[in-house]
Amino acid sequence: MSKVHTALAFPYNGDLTAPYLVEVAYPFFDEIVIIEARETLSGNKKPQLYYKQNVSKFRKFKDKITVLLIEAFPPRPPDWEPYIGMPQNEKDSWFREFYQRDLAQVYLAQKHKHYILCCCDADEIPNPQHLHNLRERYSEFDEPSFFGMEILYYNAHWKVKDADWTLPFICNDKYKKQLHAIRIGQPNAPKTILPSGGWHCTFFFSIDDIVRKLESFSHRDIDSDCIKDPKYIKDCILNGKDILSPLRLESFRGDTTLTRHLTPLPETLRHLHEEVVRAQKK
The domain that contains 21 carries what CATH number? Predict the structure, then answer.
């Protein structure tokens, strides 16, 4: 077998978490593929590319970074429907998201006969314990393995209790399904789960950037004025309420060392937590 290329890929939509994901991944992968488009998933033109705006945060990792730029999304095919019942008003935004994600697979297949790909979003940070010796574990990923991640909310002081996030995955070139199809999977289909798989850093943004995310990502049904009210968002952050549902979050506010989490946070994520808490106080 020719050399196996290892890569981590994620779509970049301005997430504060992205440089921290790259820092965690850097020692374990040959290449880090960042995919960005000139418009948001909701179809709005960006005033500036997020990667260009934040390039200094990625500078020390640039020898492994490849940026794939989407100048313009292709039009959505009229009959495109990845699953039955997708709301009509969300089809364009989800088509853009799936197209952006799948581009990493197209790129790697053109360059490498054999590869291992870790596919995640910028706010999904895998536990490094699962990233060692990937090349020697090639056959382990003939079928996807999914990271069972803790769901942290706003910062490391809050998490969703008794729940795992299992959308990010790792697979090799032998698995031919498109990345978006692997990610959304089939309802109730069995998954190979990597336990203590990492951290889904949900809404790790300043309040202004939470509003921007709500206006720009694929879930068009929650782009509403009441949810985007900065006072409402601030109250949710301070009191451990999910901005999207009545769910109450589990508190770690008294854990000043950030060691009580099910999966102890590495130093990189502690720095991320500190940065996002500062941003949310502004």
Answer: 3.90.550
- The DSSP result for 11-70, as a single string, is E-SS-TTHHHHHHHHGGG-SEEEEEEESB-TTSPBPSS-HHHHTHHHHGGGGGGEEEEEE
What is the C-alpha R_g of the chain? 18
Amino acid identity, residue 256? T
Count of residues in the chain? 282
Count of helix runs (H) and strand runs (E) in the chain: 9, 10
Q: Is 103 helix (H, G, I), strand (E, B) or coil?
A: helix
The model carries a pTM of 0.91
Distance CA 259, CA 201 (A): 16
Amino acid letter, 22: V
Whether residue 42 contacts residue 139, with contact meaning beta carbons closer than 8 Å, is answered with no
For every one of its 282 residues, what pLDDT tens digit does the chain have, with 9 covering 90 and above?
Answer: 558 999 999 999 888 999 999 999 999 999 999 999 999 988 889 999 999 999 999 999 999 999 999 999 999 998 888 777 777 878 899 899 999 999 999 999 999 999 999 999 999 999 999 999 999 999 999 999 999 999 999 999 999 988 899 999 999 999 999 999 999 886 667 889 999 999 999 999 999 999 988 887 776 566 678 888 999 999 999 999 999 887 788 887 655 555 555 567 888 999 999 999 999 998
Both tokens of 103, joined, read 């581009």
- Structural domain harbouring 216: 5-281
Domain count, the chain: 1
